Amino acid sequence: MTPGRAAGAVLRYTALAAVLGFFALPLLWLAFAPFDRDPSVAASLPRFTLDNFRELLDNENALRSLRNSLLLAAGTGGIVVAFAASAAYALSRVRLPGRDALLYALLLLSSIVTGTAAMVPLFNLAYELDLIDSRLGVILVLSGGLLPSAIFILKDFTDTTPRSYEESARVFGASPLQIVTHIVVPLIRPGLATIAVWSVAQVWGNFLIPFLLLRSPEKSPAAVVMYTFYTEGGQPDLALISTFSLLYSLPVVAMFLFVSSRYGFRFHGGIKH
């Protein structure tokens, strides 16, 4: 290697290390601050203590908000996976005029008209349906926003599933429901797992929609309750925030690692012809 190439390689790796270090600092703070007696905004070696976790466990709002987040995430994830799988299978197997154009239009509109931009009509709709301060209302709004992208992703998994499997099952007398449950669903299982984790992650970190639609503090999810952790002097309670953030991030990370190790976390699918 010539001196010029060696110097270029050193500069590239130095720049890469600097970028990685920049993005790693928040993760280091999240790893160390919950175990620090007096955490600050700077990442430093902690003076080890578990009092922050004891204080968090004594906080009823924190634990209740995690349960609320779990309910919202599970409800939304279940609806998105079930409806997206049904719609993706129908769009993949039934030839409809303008099918692909409709699918791309839904995906485009869901990207442009986000939950923030559509929040006023969504709020009015929830009010007219008496879904204000209702977990069901939040679940339905979140599910509607996630479904177009989920259908688009799952359709790719369904398209790559050989139709010969379904035709063989029909020859042996399988019903349409049996074909879907016993043949199609097992074949697109990696896609279903990917959509499930993606949906849960989207709901888990969503602040705006639960904040606007839920009025009762006991129904607020973790993303909303986290913004209430202040000291009596009005300063952010970094000990409680960092500890809660660490516990708050663990479920999604665990789901991602499980799906990645079991199926491979990917947004394209399945079995090639």
UniProtKB/TrEMBL annotation:
Record keywords, A-Z: Cell membrane, Membrane, Transmembrane, Transmembrane helix, Transport
GO cellular component: plasma membrane
One GO process term, biological-process aspect: transmembrane transport
SUPFAM superfamilies noted in UniProt: MetI-like
Predominant cellular place of this UniProt entry's protein: membrane
Transmembrane segments: 12-32, 70-91, 103-123, 135-154, 192-213, 238-259
Membrane topology reported for the UniProt record: Multi-pass membrane protein
Cell compartments where the protein resides: Cell membrane
Stored PROSITE patterns: ABC_TM1
Domain ABC transmembrane type-1 stretches: 66-259
Family, similarity comment: Belongs to the binding-protein-dependent transport system permease family.
Name this protein carries in UniProt: ABC transporter permease
Organism whose genome encodes this protein: Streptomyces marincola
